[in-house]
Amino acid sequence: MKNVFLAAVLLTVALPAGAQVGVSINIGEPGFYGQIAIGSAPPPQLIYPQPVIIAPAPRYVGVPPIYLRVPPGQVKHWRNYCGRYDACGRPVYFVRDDWYLNRYVPYYRGRHGDRREYRRYDDRRGYGDHDRDHDRGHGHGRDR
To answer: Which of 42, 63, 65, 131 is the most exposed place for a label (fewest CB within 10 A)?
Structure first.
């Protein structure tokens, strides 16, 4: 009985781990927030002139600042959100949305190619009837 209970518990714990949903958002898409690699891009327009540092940690001493695009509410309450970007204790510059959308995104796409996926959905292409038995029996009428 203990083995059956243990197996049921392990199975219950293992099932959600296998059901992971992957979401991919690329630079330039409306929902992208996160670190931006400036490189040789045009100089960013910043929200604050000085980098913001929350909870300085010794491991980040002398580390160059990172540039982030974050939603406006997160900039105001950065202390609550820095962990989401692994940026607590690091010097952070927040880039302005207008610079990101009008200058950085075109620069990035010109350098890395436009990686947006354009999909055309066509319900007639390759789906078939998925064995739904649309003929409904021998005489193609309703099966009762």
So the answer is: 131
In a domain, 48, yes or no: yes
Residue with tokens 């518990």: 9
Three-state helix/strand/coil letters over 11-72: HHHHHHHHCCCCCCCCCCCCCCCEEECCCCCCCCCECCCCCECCCCCHHHCCCCCEEEECCH
Is the residue at 17 inside a domain? no
Tokens linked to 71: 């939603």
Please count the structural domains in the chain.
1
pLDDT tens figures, 41-81: 888 888 888 888 876 556 666 788 899 999 989 999 999 99
Question: Does a structural domain hold residue 122?
Answer: no
pTM of the entire predicted model: 0.48
Tell me the β-bridge partners of 52.
92
Q: Do the domain assignments include residue 125?
A: no
Residues 71-88 pLDDT 10s: 989 999 999 999 999 888
Q: Which of 17-26 are b and which e, b meaning 16 or more Cβ less than 10 Å from the residue's Cβ?
A: eeeeeeeeee
Element (H, E) at 5: helix 2-18
